[in-house]
Amino acid sequence: MPKVSRRSLLAGAAAAGSLATAHAAFAGAPWSEGQPDLKGTSILITGCSSGFGRLGAEHYARLGAKVFATMRGLPRPEADTLRALAARDGLDITVLDLDVTSDEQVAAAVAEAERLAGGALDVLVNNAGIGISGPVEVQDMEATKLAFDTNVYGCHRLARAVLPAMRARRRGLIIPISSQLGRVIAPFSGHYSATKFALEAMSEALAYEVAMHGIEVAIVQPGGYPTDVWRNRNRYTGALRERIEPRHADGYWQVVERMGTEDGSGRTADPMDVPRAIASIIAMPAGSRPLRTPVSAGTVPQTAINEVSARIQVEWLGGSPAIGPAIRAVHGV
């Protein structure tokens, strides 16, 4: 079987890297070393009011990128603070109003970013996401729909919005922010793993489908970091707890009592690990970026799953005349 690399599929050049390194390139890597040059790179990020999105917006701009930092519910203090920082330090950051659950706001924000960028965006970072904890049985349809609408459909909306211009230019990069829990499952986390599993599957399928158009998808799988995700999750989870019907709660009363009280305390990992890893991925040559990147200051339990999944994909579908070249190219074999 001839070797088909992703880089050769996209641009006619030779690729580097093995199947294993393509899926664990940053596991335990020193992300703080080096400063990638992102000058001339346009990046749209969702969920920039806090956490990885807020940290990433500033980090990529300091590396020279033109950043479109989106957040919902403008005007809001977080947007004012970010704009003031950009003005003070001369950073190219534009704050845009964007709720990922709104078709209209997604279309408007992407159109404005493309107008200001002078064409297709170079990078989309699908960062916005929420968690609502608790047993699966107590997740009512309001919580269920909100989780999927934000974590899955929101990423789909953004990808669809940026892809036409990326395809026309024949290059681009989409970075979905998944989770360790997109490959392994912890009980009592509501539908969080379900949404991240769906995001992983959708993003991998997209990677195969857009490879022929010169576009890459690089999934990032963070571990647990001390960001505002805990406070935000508690807000959604607390609201759910108030709505739970006793007939659903009475099977898990000890768990239900703790819902909405976890604050992420005791976690000391540096959240900047994630923006640093993303910046390194963006700076990689086209065609060499890993499909999946675990990012954690501790264990990376999903690495073995990533490797087995890649091997099975290649063994099962890599020989297909129709889709095999894309499968092998995305997995670097």
Features:
single chain; 333 residues; Rossmann fold; 6-stranded parallel beta sheet; two-stranded parallel ribbon; 12 helices
Structure report:
It contains twelve helices and eight strands. The longest helix has 29 residues, at 141-169. The chain is globular, with a radius of gyration of 20 Å. It has helices at 6-11, 51-62, 77-89, 103-117, 141-169, 192-210, 229-243, 246-249, 253-258, 273-283, 303-317, 324-330; strands spanning 42-45, 66-71, 93-97, 123-126, 172-176, 215-217, 219-222, 292-295. It has 333 residues and is α/β, with parallel strands linked by helices. Residues 10-28 have low confidence and may be disordered. The chain has one domain (25-316): Rossmann fold (3-Layer(aba) Sandwich). Helix content is 46%, strand content 11%. Strand 5 (172-176), helix 6 (192-210) and strand 6 form a beta-alpha-beta unit.
Q: What is the CATH class designation?
A: Alpha Beta
The H-level CATH homologous superfamily, spelled out, is: NAD(P)-binding Rossmann-like Domain
- Write the element-wise H/E pattern from the N-terminal end onward: HEHEHEHEHEHEEHHHHEHH
Quaternary organisation: single chain
Beta-strand content estimate: 5-15%
CATH topology: Rossmann fold
Distance N to C terminus = 10 Å
> Which residue ranges are poorly predicted, with pLDDT under 50 across at least 5 consecutive positions?
10-28
Shape: globular
Radius of gyration: 20 Å
Tell me the count of domains.
Answer: 1
Largest sheet: 6 strands, parallel
CATH architecture: 3-Layer(aba) Sandwich
> What is the residue-mean pLDDT, rounded to a whole number?
90
Please bin the fraction of helical residues. Answer: 40-55%
Q: Count of DSSP E strands?
A: 8
Number of helices: 12
